[in-house]
Design goal:
Alpha-Beta Plaits, 4 strands, about 110 residues, globular, about 35% helix, four-stranded antiparallel beta sheet, alpha+beta
């Protein structure tokens, strides 16, 4: 099991424009698949908001900050990031979270 103190947890909330919603989904599927194959990625899940169309939330876990930086600098993120900026209606909110009190698995 990974050292919880070193884990890099990331939450990204984005709102896509209506006209780019379908294109963003197709590209996101490719980006998610590539991210899940990264050596330092432990988890990458994508959710849609049930109350607001076009809002997506990514929950990401990396082995450590170095693995997250490698993810940010990866070719698939550079490719997706360029498209993503044109598709959102407002800038995405990205938060890197540090575990403080993480309960053990049951």
């Amino acid at each position: 099991m990974e050292n919880k103190a070193e884990l890099c947890n990331v939450v990204v909330v984005s709102k896509m424009t209506a006209e780019n919603l379908e294109a963003s989904r197709e590209t996101a599927e490719k980006m998610i698949d590539a991210t899940r194959k990264e050596e330092g990625n432990l988890r990458y899940d994508w959710y849609t908001d049930v109350n607001e169309a076009g809002v997506g939330v990514a929950l990401e876990v990396f082995k450590n900050m170095e693995a997250f930086q490698a993810h940010i600098n990866s070719e698939h993120m550079k490719e997706f990031g360029g498209k993503f900026k044109d598709w959102v209606s407002v800038p995405a909110v990205l938060r890197v979270l540090k575990p403080v009190d993480v309960a053990p698995k049951y």
